[in-house]
């Protein structure tokens, strides 16, 4: 990009500089270029996670992840032998589960009263679209902003027609190899799903940035993503920056189970605003992961980073030094010990 172009498009420059930092860093950079941090009139101030209270509702109040209802494939694995995965339908029980999930989600988003709306993203698979249709029965039409089919939140690709006995053997191998990196023959690994979910998140932030989801600043917007078990876990992994080892701990969603990421008072999304610590433990989250959610639920971005920085550092480094001075002192001590040994 030329200097003249960069001058006309400062956001493009900030995007290039922040690319490695991810979508949140891009919007922080954008806000600083266009409006300055923390300004009360900044329409992107919510993206900096330092927004004023009256701007907090410009971010979606909640992001709700829902797994589809019971499918014919969940009931009988032989269904995949003759029916492509994307065409596997819901069972009658699955449709009932979806209607119950719709009522449950309605209770969550309407709990505070006031002006609220929902926007849906849905995987293109038959079972997720059918789940969305049943969930939608719970919502008045004027409360629904819209719905969009999103191919990037589809199921992990297990290959084409799946022979039941062969798939059982392959899934046993996956357990030994590791769920995240194991790639199904002619299919995907969870790492592949991670890449497309990351791409979807970029688009999601752009939708929020451009006001495509709702342009009424007085309205609480709720995003509902109707997807699949592994895809939803990968979404959480990407959002909360969990490691592969932390992902491997997680239990799958039950059919039509939904998990609510809700915006806390400090501008961070957390699972602990709506859910309980006991629920997170049941999902397989470690004490460190739960502590991270507690900070996200109650602290602003700066204090969370200060108090929970060891959440990541200690997992990568063995006995990290507190400061440069402590390292210098240890080097001096080692030199002194070396001199004493030479004298001996």
UniProtKB/TrEMBL annotation:
SMART domains: PGAM. Residues 325-335 have a biased composition (Acidic residues). It comes from the Eukaryota. It holds the Pfam family His_Phos_1. Residues 1-23, 314-344 are annotated as: Disordered. This is Phosphoglycerate mutase-like protein AT74H. It comes from Urochloa decumbens.
């Amino acid at each position: 990009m030329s200097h003249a172009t960069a001058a006309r498009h400062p956001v493009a420059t900030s995007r290039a500089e922040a690319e490695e930092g991810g979508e949140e860093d891009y919007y922080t950079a954008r806000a600083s270029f266009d409006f300055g941090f923390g300004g009360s009139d900044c329409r992107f101030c919510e993206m900096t996670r330092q927004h004023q209270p009256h701007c907090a509702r410009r971010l979606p109040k909640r992001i709700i992840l829902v797994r589809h209802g019971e499918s014919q494939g969940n009931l009988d694995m032989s269904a995949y032998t003759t029916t492509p995965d994307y065409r596997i339908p819901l069972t009658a029980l699955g449709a009932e589960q979806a209607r119950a999930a719709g009522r449950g989600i309605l209770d969550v988003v309407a709990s505070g009263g006031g002006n609220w709306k929902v926007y849906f993203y849905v995987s293109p698979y038959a079972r997720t679209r059918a789940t969305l249709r049943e969930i939608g029965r719970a919502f008045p039409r004027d409360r629904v902003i819209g719905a969009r089919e999103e191919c990037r939140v589809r199921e992990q690709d297990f290959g084409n027609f799946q022979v039941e006995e062969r798939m059982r053997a392959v899934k046993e191998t996956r357990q030994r190899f590791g769920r995240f990196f194991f790639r199904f023959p002619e299919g995907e690994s969870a790492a592949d799903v991670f890449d497309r979910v990351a791409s979807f998140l970029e688009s999601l932030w752009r939708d929020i940035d451009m006001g495509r989801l709702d342009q009424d600043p007085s309205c609480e917007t709720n995003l509902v993503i109707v997807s699949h078990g592994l895809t939803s876990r990968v979404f959480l992994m990407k959002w909360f920056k969990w490691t592969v080892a932390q992902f491997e701990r997680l239990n799958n969603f039950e059919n039509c189970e939904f998990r609510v990421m809700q915006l806390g008072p400090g501008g961070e999304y957390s699972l602990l605003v709506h859910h309980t610590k006991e629920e997170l433990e049941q999902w397989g989250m470690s004490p460190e992961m739960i502590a991270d959610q507690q900070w996200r639920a109650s602290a602003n971005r700066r204090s969370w980073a200060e108090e929970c920085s060891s959440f990541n550092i200690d997992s990568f480094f063995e006995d990290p030094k507190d400061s440069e001075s402590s390292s210098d002192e240890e080097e001096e001590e080692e030199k002194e010990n070396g001199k004493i040994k030479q004298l001996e």
